[in-house]
Amino acid sequence: MLNLHGYGMRLIEGALVTVELAALSLIIAVLLGLVTASAKLSKRRLPHLLATLYTTLIRGVPDLVLMMLFFFGGQVLMNDVSDWLYARFGLDLFINIDAFIAGVLTIGLIFGAYMGETFRGAIQAVDKGQVEAATACGMSRALIFRRIRFPLMMRHALPGLSNNWLVLLKTTALVSVIGLSDMVRVATQASKTTLEPFTFMLFVAVIYLLLTSLSEWVIKRLTRKYNAGFTRGRS
Amino acid sequence: MIDTLLEPLTAWLAERAIFTPDTLAVYWQGIETTLSLVSLSLLMGFVISLPLSLARGSHYGWLRRPVQAFTYVFRGTPLLVQLYLIYYGVVFIDDVQESWLWPLVKEPFLPALLAFTLNTVAYTTEIFHGAIVNTPRGELEAAKACGMSRSLIYRRIVFPSAFRRALPAYGNEVILTLHASAIASTVTLMDITGAAQFVYSRFYAPFEAFIFAALIYLVITLTLLYVLRRLEARFNPQLRGVRKQRRKIMAFGNAIPQKP
Question: Fewer CB atoms < 10 Å away: N or C end of chain A?
Answer without folding.
Answer: N
